[in-house]
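Internal ticket - ligand job 418, guanosine-5'-diphosphate:
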Amino acid sequence: MAVDVLIGLQWGDEGKGKIVDYLADKYDAICRFQGGPNAGHTIYVKGEKFVLHTIPSGIFREGVENVIGNGVVIDPITLRKEIKGLEALGVDVRSRLKIARKSHLILPSHRYLDAASEKAKGDKKIGSTLRGIGPTYMDKTGRNGLRFGDTDAPNFKEKYQDLKKRHETIAAIYPAFEFEWNEEEWFECIDFLKDFERVDCEYYLNDILDKGGKILAEGAQGVMLDIDFGTYPFVTSSNTITAGVCTGLGVAPSKIGEVIGISKAYCTRVGGGPFPTELFDDNGKKLQDLGHEFGATTGRPRRCGWIDLVQLRYSVMINGVTQIALTKSDIMDNFDEIVVADRYLVDDKETDQLPYDLCIDNYKPLYKTFKGWNTTLSSDDKELPDAFKEYLEYLESFVKVPIPIVSIGPERDALIIR
Ligand code: GDP
Ligand code: IMO
Ligand code: MG
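stdout (structure tokens):
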């Protein structure tokens, strides 16, 4: 059987957590394959809100395995907090969670370096979540990292100190600043996590597939934050795209099945970097207010703008998206006009492709306007309002992918399945 993939098609926070939680009971295992606690995936279960950072969003489903894959970077302190929060809600995390031995560890000194690098960038900063993501992936590719499986080594503490020393040498190029190291807590959390089942996720997951099981790979961030294809350098440090599933879990490309792309009916971005359709007017404010657009990890206000179909089609192409779930469609219930960008003017020439560098100010998006539906969408509706159908059909014909799932609220069942 196949590994289906679910990824964010924009700049993150598309509502991936909600859709994974909805789909999870159709799968044997839900797996995170990249990123770390920079992610914040919000789930509502029976009216209670929970934000997941490292644990896959299938954790609320009984009988479903949840795997933190080798491509993920783990902060033991955040992960313990998350596990305890779930256990307090009565979720049996211990029986449902597996951690890949080959996942990399975020040290307190990685977080320090992240903060130091951002401070040094001044107004050119990325707007990182400061969870130590960039420095940890740098150590991974630089072949200096510590992996979860290393915690069993008798000289683990020595390895830790060696890496910390390296970080101190690097940190010396930056001005020093106050920092909460929490090293003692870090080691306590390592001990706590050692009690959880650890797996070689490549063997573990291929075995599930060989037995006819189904796996869902849950992306974090979004395509436009991908290290290769995002708005570089304003990106995260991992491959957030479908290709990342193979390296982040140890499954072959031939095993990939459906690719479900998640897009908001508009667009948001948190942190720095280009955002072509960003709105600075009342509509932007209205999207932010009605959509409660504040980061699930850092609480920062999210920048808001119209949906960008040039960007969406780019994401569909890179990821081999086979279907789209359109989230937050309910937020558009209150707009007289719904606007979409469907071309760009680059150096005075019209194009339907994204320019090489969105940081260079030589382009502007061109827009098409649709009539708003001005009514409250409901899961009970047998027929969608005509104006909404027209908008959806335009999106589908533009990106050439069906939109079978329309999300109309944060709760698990607030969905219209077409
Ligand atoms: P993720 O990182 O992609 O999982 O998304 P986040 O959890 O960071 O942000 C999505 C936010 O939108 C969360 O607060 C969700 O509860 C909420 N949400 C998801 N889908 C919908 C929807 O269809 N309508 C509304 N109103 N809220 C939604
Ligand atoms: P989910 O999975 C939205 C953004 C940060 C910053 C840039 C780099 O919830 O969609 P990093 O901490 O990786 O060094 O930050 O990427 N970013 C996200 N934005 N959603 C996320 O995750 C994000 N994870 C990172 O704001 O601009
Ligand atoms: Mg999020």
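Auto-summary: Residues 156-171 form the longest helix (16 residues). The CA atoms of residues 10 and 222 lie 5 Å apart.
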